[in-house]
Task: structure prediction
Amino acid sequence: MTTSDLEQFAAWLEELIRRRGYDIDSPRGGGKSRLADEAGVHRAAITRLLQRQSMPDLETTRRLAHVLQVPVREMLIRSGRLTEEDLPLPSLPDSARPGGASRHLTLEEAAAGLGVPPEQREMFMRVAGQFLPETSVRPGERTPLASD
Result:
C-alpha cells in the first residue's frame, strides 16, 4: 500500500460516507461516532482513516462495507490491497455471453455476480423475480435473461 493508495481510498470513502448521510465535516455532527457505532468499530479507526493516517484492517473494512452498502470486493480493490485480477467476479454462464449456450442465469447467480450482500439476496430475488416472464419458476431454477 502506498500513500497514494491511502489518499485515494480515503477520498473515495469520505464521499461515500457523506452520500450515506453521515456528517463527518462538522466537529459536533456526530457522523464519525455514528458510523463507528453502526459498524461496530472504534471511532479512532474511522478518524485515522479520514486523517489519512492508516488503512483499516480487514475486519473494519468488512464492517464498513456492510454499513455503507458497498461490496467488500470494491472496498479491497479501491484500497489498493487487492486488484480485480486478485478478486475476479464469478464467471458468467454461457447464456450471458454472445453466442453462448442455452444455460440460463439463476436469480442467485445474478445476485452473487452483482455483489448483493447475502442478507439482502432474498429480497433481491423477490423483487427481480417480478420482472421475469410468467413462465419463470422459483428462485434457484433456471430463468432466461432478457437477452435470451
In short: The chain has two domains: 3-78, 90-148. Residues 4 and 62 are 21 Å apart (CA to CA). The helical segments are 3-19, 31-39, 43-50, 58-68, 72-78, 107-114, 121-129.
